[in-house]
Amino acid sequence: MKPSCETSSVSKVLHLGKDLLASNRQHAAANRARFDQAGVLVVNLLSSPGSGKTALLERTLGDLSSRWPMAVITGDLQTDNDARRLAGRGAPVVSIATGTLCHLEASMIARACQELDLSRLRLLFIENVGNLVCPAGYDLGETLRVVLMSVTEGEDKPLKYPLAFKSADAVVVSKTDLAQAAGFRREEALANLTVIVPQAQIFELSVQSGQGMDDFYRWLESALVSRCGAAVRH
Amino acid sequence: MHEIGLMETALRAAEEAALEAGARRIQRLHLRVGRLSGIEPDALRLAFDALRPGTLAENAQLDLELVPIVCRCQSCNLGFSPEDFTFLCPRCGTPSADTLQGRELELAAVEVSEA
Ligand SMILES: Nc1nc2c(ncn2[C@@H]2O[C@H](COP(=O)(O)OP(=O)(O)OP(=O)(O)O)[C@@H](O)[C@H]2O)c(=O)[nH]1
Ligand SMILES: [Mg+2]
Ligand SMILES: [Zn+2]
After folding, report:
1. Which segments in chain B show pLDDT lower than 50?
2. Torsions phi, psi for B25 (to 5 deg)
């Protein structure tokens, strides 16, 4: 190396390989371990604003909360409107105000769980912030991820937001009572879902008419059974 | 939409690593961003410009390496880089659910100096 007469600084490269989501991953793993130990089935609901996450939970709590002990954690940017809509349906509701944050993170779920007695629960729903981009990248430690798209949003949602749909265990096509009015092209939507999320169960339902709800409930029940034999225990 | 928070994490990690190595300045940050990470490179650059003043990386250069998506077909085992988000196997047409690569969000390296 040539000696330098200047005090020019020598630079070096530090190889870090640091995963920027590592902290969330660790919290998610810790959540998952707690949920496993408690034997609670945790379902994370993702969709654009207004696709019907809260409405689906309103109906599900009304129909099922006397059958299985369940709870809801809702994430909302500013208000606790969703938590208020869900109150009084036989299930505790914990509201997380995310402020300006566009998604829920695993550490927020851990904190919210301090207000719940997990060991008494069979089912825990998490309503994520209405957003199809950001929540997709954040594992919360959930058992299952459900992505909703309503018939009024257009058939190409899965093509526009592949990341969220790719991560789904189930896709709910919601508000089917409005399909005709919205000119929803069902075949096209299902074809898009098949190429983007070949692995997912698809439920077409309406909380308004009740159409398709039973299939969704049966799916939840079979997930509960395979998780801990809950359906036979209570 | 949460690129600011991620860039904060990256800058903090970069500064820690620099100080630990006895460096006083960060010349360059190298981030690897998967095409399926949901992160917008442009938004990351904006976040970097907003956050770097007053940090060791004040005058640093930001290198963003976009990591392509790689899938493996469950039917015929072909590894391929999909052209779009349908992840259809170019050999047998089976849609693929899983990826081997493309979700990265990583501070790969920093170049630091003493002054
Ligand atoms: N007709 C009809 N309307 C529905 C149905 N499901 C939801 N809606 C309506 O759609 C609107 C939005 O539903 P929400 O449940 O608030 O949607 P959300 O996904 O929770 O919205 P955010 O929390 O803002 O992200 C409400 O006015 C609901 O009454 C349905 O099955 N049929
Ligand atoms: Mg809601
Ligand atoms: Zn193939």
Report:
1. none
2. -140, 145
